[in-house]
Amino acid sequence: MSTHNEYQESPLQSPLLFSSAEELPLGLLQSVIEEDLFETPLGSHRALHNLYEELKKENLQPWIRKAIESTLRSPSLRQKIYTSWSLWPDSTHAENARDSMDGLAPLDLASWVSKNCSGCFDLLLGYQAVSPASFCRAGYGFFILAYMGRRDILGPFSFNPGDPIMSVFQVSTFWRRVFQACWARLKPLPDNGLKSLKPAEIERIFRFADPSLAKDLEDSGLELAEPSSRNMSSAWYGAAARNAPVTMLNWLLSRAELPEDLLATAAHNNYIHAAPWIVQHTQSYVGWRKGAQEAADCLARGSAKMLAIILQSPFAKGQTHQTLLEDLTIIAVDRACQDGKSLRIEGPDDPRRYRLDDVEDVAVQKVKVLQKESANVEVVGLRVKAAELGMYRLEAALGEADGGADANLV
Question: Which pTM was predicted?
Fold first, then answer.
């Protein structure tokens, strides 16, 4: 029998107690069963499998069955499992914790048996020790891990009633290792599932695909040849979202021209790591201008840096540049004021003031970026608007941008 991260030095305690000729106290048995299950930090498969084999016995003593079942059903055991093994109860919690996931993390017991021991996995599910909607620290969903070995991964399913119907293969695009495992199964088949992938799923794939995987998918039928295809655009968007995007952006550029909206998409989503490369390769003035406007309109921290990178383009020259700088200033300040107004701040102690401060910080940074491009940007009226919302730092920055013009000039 396969083992799971086990220390083999000491024998399990529960089999010894189960061999007793006399009934033992329930509390003692529960304590020992739980101690065996957690003899290793990520859980003991030999301890869990022993419980599975015991429950299969037709002549099992009632007091032993009661001890095992009550332990597995225990809310305290469930809480310990989720806490000790860093499990998330559903996709919403997992999505919120995406930054703390580690695709190379070792699998906990529940995750491991979902792939390698269906009897033990069914035991945990049957007694609700874990939920099939849960996700582990490595980023895997139990449902996906279990169904990869049991059902057609191109078949439809949904996590919860009312959720969109998708296949396991489509859902696997959220996680590199799960997708690669699914693709390894599907690749040799006549229907390899690639035609079922939608643009959003292709975008997710290109957030982690390397050139080798991308070429494999292309050779296997993923249509990327047409520069204007939705698949190609999705691939560009996914590559731009990466923390290290240059390799995949160069690979895509060897096959097609940049989409005209790639810089605008990157600016809208604040894909700061891809910005220098995209600016360098953008050949459309319209695409560059839309990117600058999206960067000015974005409220994300770091969007001022995005704007500064975009303004380093050769397009940021000529007679119309001054007018564009004024337009970008208006966009940035208007966006900040709109967001500030929607907060409905009530006095200096209003907790929403922290959000307003963040919005104001971003706007001030952008005004300073634009001021470096032109020492005298005419923004008459914007200072008054900022002051009315209590954005006095933004008002002061605008005063410097327009050469200290009187704030009362509207």
Answer: 0.66
